[in-house]
Amino acid sequence: MSRDLKENVKVLVEGYTEKYYISGLKRNTTTEINIDRPVNMDGGGYKNFIKEIRKLDYKGCIAIFIIIDLDTANDDKKNLNNLISLCK
């Protein structure tokens, strides 16, 4: 017996503002795709996003959105580049 998996989208956000962007999108969409509850990283930095992505369950996942500010990009180029490479 097989079970159909509903396609879903995972969302990692840097903070509360970005979380509300996605919450608004969820309310205003008619898509059949499930948008998981956003994971608020509490401004945890690029390294924390890398850790979170590595431990995610990808079953049924068709996309992962990462919403971050680039305000610390110059100070943390190494981890930002690692995050970008991981997302490729």
How many domains, as an integer?
Answer: 1
- Could you tell me how far the N terminus lies from the C terminus, measured between alpha carbons in angstroms? 34 Å
Order of helices and strands: EHEEHEH
| Shape field | globular
Taken as a percent bin, the fraction of beta residues is 15-25%
Secondary structure: number of strands = 4
What is the C-alpha radius of gyration, as a whole number of Å?
Answer: 14 Å
Description:
Strand 1, helix 1 and strand 2 form a beta-alpha-beta unit. Helix 2 packs parallel to helix 3. Strands 1, 2, 3 and 4 form a 4-stranded parallel β-sheet that branches. With 88 residues, this protein is an alpha/beta fold. Helix content is 39%, strand content 19%.
Characteristic key phrases:
about 90 residues, alpha/beta, 3 helices
Précis, in short:
By secondary structure, this protein is of the alpha/beta class. The protein contains three helices and four strands; from the N terminus they run E-H-E-E-H-E-H.
